[in-house]
Design a protein that fits this description.
Layout: H1 2-19, H2 22-32, E1 37-46, E2 49-55, E3 63-64, E4 66-69, H3 76-88, E5 96-104, E6 107-115, E7 130-137, H4 150-164
Parallel strand pairs: 1-6
Antiparallel strand pairs: 1-2, 1-4, 2-3, 2-7, 5-6
Length: 165
């Protein structure tokens, strides 16, 4: 049944594209197609330690990685660099992509890792989202770490180890 609906939509868009101006066709396609969001996750390393942020809006699992949405007109690398800057005030120049996964029907998540020269920490963010940032050893991650981010951390570590071997 779903394939019949898809076929009808394709035929309809084909016919519309032959009859209506291009701008109207593009508008119709935009409003009728499913929307998709893209998020970035960034793991920052200094040696064998990673930076975690304590978020104010997640009382049960306050600790987590740098994350954020890709904005219109941004590519994922730009979004990851922007999120690191916005959340902890740190500029990163090189990001390594290690993770690409559908986190839901309409949610793509892209993971990056980067190495930083020193263990900087940040002040609480002005918007109140980030309370603090601390560096943690991979074998001593804090209680309250968002459970869904543990496999991402392990995957980044495996990718990073392959890069250095």
């Amino acid at each position: 049944m779903k394939s019949a609906g898809r076929l009808i939509r394709r035929v309809a868009f084909f016919l519309i594209s032959r009859v209506f101006p291009k701008r109207l066709t593009q508008f119709l396609m935009h409003v009728t197609q499913p929307k998709f969001v893209v998020a970035v996750v960034v793991i920052l390393y200094h040696g064998n330690r990673i930076l975690l942020l304590r978020h104010s809006y997640r009382p049960r699992y306050p600790w987590g990685l740098v994350t954020g949405w890709v904005k219109h007109g941004e590519n994922p690398t730009q979004a990851a660099m922007r999120e690191v800057w916005e959340e902890i005030g740190l500029r990163v120049s090189t990001l390594n992509c290690f993770y690409l996964e559908l986190a839901g029907r309409r949610h793509l998540e892209i993971g990056f890792w980067a190495t930083v020269d020193k263990e900087t920490t940040s002040q609480p963010s002005l918007d109140g989202e980030i309370l603090e940032s601390l560096w943690f050893s991979l074998d001593k991650l804090p209680d309250g770490l968002l459970p869904s981010q543990i496999p991402i951390i392990l995957q980044a570590q495996a990718h990073r180890q392959r890069e250095f071997s």
